[in-house]
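Lay summary. Proteins are chains of building blocks that fold into shapes, and those shapes determine what they do. In this project we predict the shape from the chain. Here is one chain we studied, written as its sequence of building blocks.
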Amino acid sequence: MNKFESDYYSTPLFQRYYVMFYYCILLIVGNDVNPSTVSEFKFCSFMLFIGAFIEGYIIGAITSEMSKHEEQTRITGNLIEYVNFSMDIHIFPELVKKSITEFMIFFRENIECRPEFTEFF
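And here is the predicted shape, written in a compact code that computers can read:
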């Protein structure tokens, strides 16, 4: 047998399934370990499968946190806009409007430091 031939098709059916399962997972994860025996294929497939789940969990958690932050920013932005609109209607002095707006922007950016006020945002 030369270097371009393989004995893949002469191996037992389940061993071929293990090899194909390994390469399917390898396409998802993108890492190559080069196992050579059936037990190595099983172990590498299992570890790559677990790694794919862990990677998916981490990416999902990061996406969830970013979504929460964007929602909080949108809500506080709407509240600041409402307060500015109310101050315009009631004709607040410019200095007072500026101070209140600066405080609300500061408060929005530092809400994690003051958890007792989270019910307002």
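What the prediction tells us: Residues 8-120 form one domain.
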